[in-house]
Amino acid sequence: MSLARTGVLVALLLSTTACAAQRGSPGALPDIQPGRRPDLETEEAGLWMQTDRLEADLKTSGALVADSALNAYVRNIVCRLAEAYCADIRIYILRVPYFNASMMPNGVMQVWTGLILRVDNEAQLAYVLGHELGHYLRRHSIQRWRDVRAKSAFLEFSGLLTAPTGFGPLASLGAQLALVGSIFAFSRDNEREADELGFGLAVKAGYDPREASKVWEALVEERDATKDSAPFIFFATHPAPEERIENLKAFAKKSALDGGHAIIGREQFLAQTRPLRTMLLRDELRRREFTGSQVVLDRLFEAGTGLGELYFFQGELYRLRDNEGDREKTTAAYQKALEYGDAPVETHRALGLLFFKTGEKEKARLAFERYLQQRVNAEDREMIEAYLRQLE
Amino acid sequence: MLMPPSFRLGTLVTLVLAGLIATAGCAQTSVLRKADFAPQAPGPARVLLMPLDVELSELTAGGMLEPRADWTDQAKTHVRVALAAALQGKHTALISYSPPARDSEQAKVDQQLLMLHDLVAGTILLNSFVALPTKKGRFDWSLGEGVKQLQERANADYALFILFRDSYASGGRVALMVAGALVGAIVPGGRQFGSASLVDLRGGDIVWFNHLSSEAGDLRTPEAVRTAIESLLTELPL
Questions:
Q1: Pick from B103, B176, B183: CB nearest A1
Q2: Which ipTM was obtained for this model?
Q3: Predicted model pTM
Q4: Would you say the C-alpha torsion A265, A268, A272, A278 has a positive or negative sign?
Q5: Where are the domains positioned within chain A?
């Protein structure tokens, strides 16, 4: 390529940076103002328009958790953190058994049930929600959009620059990899900032600062247990959790000095989420990531609430996993569950089916009969009665 | 299990506009209609205009589509005006859609209907490129009887669904196109897509579907919108 042509390209490349600057260049922005929609001609309004459409779809999603008490509870926490921004945030609790919460630029906050199952108390939940609010307040979506836009423009131009040299494809692959890397890096900077901002909001609302790092410690534990089986996409766009844990612990140390913040809110959290736990545990096992689910179950065992239910799901995990020796473990876990008052009625049925398969007729009969006694309106009564007839 | 891919219309159009699915370069429309369709009773057809699905974007230098709320709003206004004008010549009465209360059950039902249409229309479009063996030479798509509630609520015979996507090269993109021309590389600019479907509210059948694709025409101007609407609706069977 002639020097003149290269010169023209370079000049054009520089001119796009100038063009981009008119519609907002990458970098820091002032925080969003409460109750304000972006001006119609901004790129932010464009992103809001798109996310408004996504929200309209989201409102009809079958995965929404309808439980109004839980929705009100989470909303109340968010409002304590968000204060003046409370009315700008719409919360959607979705029945998805993975650890996540996310924020759209227009104020849509998604909270997945997998997160609720994985936090121990209200303070831990508040620190995660505070982090999401941090993204919203700092307008990270729009920052990221601008960053990607500038980088992709650079990529197209550099692709043209290298195209005639014959090394185009290789150079452009290198450029693309570098670009993808830097987009993730930008996102990790956002995450750090959101951590810090969210931490501040939750401390201000009175939540125990020592709880902030515990969420991530639990996640690290789960990740390490599942290292070989399930890749955690979550970690690609987020800073290494070890780093977050260190940062959050450092924040906690500092804030402990201006002392006495102490809301952990374990009882309130349990009161609100416990009624849904059966559903959440059932969903958790549907992931068929038994190593990870075992870590989650172990943590719940340690917390010690509702042991009958937990042993039932421990049995379910063994039954679904079906490794060598899991059948015996299943039976033992179901039987253990029945030692507690809160074992689900299904435990009897599950036990009945197990004994039915192994040919232990008398035990199967007893278990099925208990199931039918305790659940008079069982939907599967006819099926269970058919089993009972076969056992005669 | 292998599932045939299903696309919502909006998604598919994004692929078309991104050049991932090739369509002819010049402006063209492509009418599909139900073979045995006969218009309802003699009086003027009452056509309910469903919420417009319009999105105009700026094509950035890097090839990203940046949605523009201001252009979209303008285009929607132009579309409403142009539709009213285009249908005036036909034997029709245009009924405007009155949205149910926010977050009401009815709002959810309507949103689901819009999403269903989006999915079916996407499938129609996909089948117009590569038809399933069972759909070759046939046009028998339906939204089902769930549309009847609209018939009663709006006192309408048909529902008309309109979609537009359009994008315009940003200053940076134009610079890139010029630069591309210098080194002999083709850098695509913006592209326009529009579609219209007419649904018989008695049973939900999509009786007519048309789409157009063009590299010319600026939907930010009322003239271009009028042209686009006229070519979309020329063969409307009413």
A1: B183
A2: 0.85
A3: 0.85
A4: positive
A5: 3-257, 277-391
